[in-house]
Amino acid sequence: PSAAPSAAAAPSAAAPPPRRHSLERAFGVLLSVNFLVFWAVPIFGMGQAYHLGLKHVLRPLYDRLDRSAALRRFAAAYVYNKPAHADFAATAVLTFLSTTVAFGVALRYQLVHGHLPWALHAAYNCAWVGIGGRMMGSAYTFAHKEGHNGVLYQRWVRRTVGNLFENWVGLLYGNVPYNFTTSHNHIHHALDGGKGDTFYCYDLDRSSLSDFMLYQRRIFLHMAGLSSLRYFRLRGMHKQERLLARGCAIFWLAFPLPLLLLTRSPWFLCVVWLQPLCAMSFFLALVNWAFHAFIELDASGRHLPHVNALTILDGQDDNFGEDDHMAHHYENPIAHARSRHDAWRARIMPELKANRASIFKEISIVELGILTLLGQFERIAERHYVDFSGELSTAQVAEMLRRRARTKESTHEEYLAWEAETEAALLASPPPKDD
User: What's phi and psi for 89, nearest 5 deg?
Assistant: First the structure.
């Protein structure tokens, strides 16, 4: 990224009018209210049900399935390309079965009775979330891992089913097919969250609820595939554009229209297709807001990589290494073994100490996002920040985190102007050759 202008700099002459900001905030408020009404109770309730009691019953049963030698042998021999990926088998089976059964029950009731009662709607949302949030978390995690690893599965799976969670199950979790394969890999990871990223957040104060409302529109456009399509088209990345356009056609036309014709119920379509998109847009906005909440710029305005992506140690809700976002960006995006991440962290420990790296413990990424939004930096510093240097007091850590969360590369208005200028320059340049 270019050198950072002052966060207090005046908006450029090309800045959008205030009315646009009001509309963007209003959109974020609507998504937030929708999330609170339809999804907050299922997510909180299913999470608490697991942590306050059900884990003592369900965890031993899951562990038994996960350790099943027969399941692991089958997964390694016939499904996954590497034996290590058989670690995913038990969770993948449970997530697929839970999703298909919940959808099948709701669809059958709709077809037989001609409507979907509120009680079944609530039950469907709870099943969608899963005990402890495991279904929504795993559906996202596996789509993420499939997008990163084009040879995760054996050839016969790749040629017939393809990416099961990214392109099939994901339709019920608000995911446009091929979004991870294209947008996530070729935009977010190519830029590591920097300027131009469809997930970019460093023109906003990550401790501001008002700025979070602005941010949600950006994430919704990413989730819908629209901002990424424009990014690829302007830069001549036609292979990615065509693949994502195919995914958009599936998500916006080929999946919902037959379902609407079959059920003749816009409400059913809203429950199983549109609501998950809105829910995951809000949820991923909060998750990415937290994963990239903190930023430190060097003298030339460049990001310190061990600050702008964070790690959570001993998190209760880690899903196959997803809590180590720092290693995901800067070590290996497809590795999930905790031992590998630990070894990498040990190798770069001098840098982590010197840069006061963004490393936390015993907290979920959702909790960290909420505490950051509420400005609870003293609580984060006291209970969750890991100071490998051992040199900072709790008050100093809290002030450092507050400053890093509020640091911007530019104002929101300046960033929008930069986007407009960049797009104008790309449009004026000769059309790139097809890749």
Answer: -60, -50
